[in-house]
């Protein structure tokens, strides 16, 4: 009966019938008479051969992409090179810490020197370079015909302590005035030096009193002051200067290149100097630029940020954004 049914089918339907039977039943064979047997060898497809051919036709680029997406845990050479950034910024931060500690020690040393007992002025004035911020004692007489002004300058309170708002030898007030620089003729020596007699208010700059006759004074040795950025330059020969230029002042007033900030005058009370329009002495303002704290905070911050970025990119294999 099956034979008669298949015989009545068209040749195309016979092929479909036999093919579907092999797919559904594995390698089963339908026996037909020789006259009606149809060769289906070229259409035989088993489940295993279908899977094999499907794997054979797979694009090799797909498997390659899967392998490349698996990190092997190694850090590329560029990653090790970028590690220089956090390491170098960390080293710079540590260097700024050492600089900060050194600057604090230097400021303390200068403060101790400025309050030490006075020493005699050296016979060879060239040795004055080794006595910066040191008190020296000299005898002589002021020559009020040779004077220049430096300013405007804030008033430094002579008797204030560091606890009084940071004023005193290391700071100043917001009140502006001028420093009066006067030639001082040394006793028994054919030499003259520059003495900063002190601070006077702008309104009383021409009303200051004088200390007449030979006196003994104590002053603090100061060197030439560097011109600050954007500060106007001193003009040679003028009586109003903007910064402490010891060579320029000595040339203008015909003195040796020695500059003292007046600390005291023997027998003179300066406790009411400002109210009596007398120049206020002790205007030594020892300042050292100390911005190392902001520097090492900046370097340490950069080191921390770049370290986190490096760890995220090369250790955790995450995107930076």
Automatic annotation (TrEMBL):
It is found in: Membrane; Mitochondrion inner membrane. Keywords: Membrane, Mitochondrion, Mitochondrion inner membrane, Transmembrane, Transmembrane helix. It is a multi-pass membrane protein. GO terms for cellular component: mitochondrial inner membrane. GO terms for biological process: mitochondrial respiratory chain complex IV assembly. The chain crosses the membrane at residues 77-98. It holds the Pfam family SURF1. InterPro entries: Surf1/Shy1, Surf1/Surf4. Belongs to the SURF1 family. Probably involved in the biogenesis of the COX complex. This is SURF1-like protein.
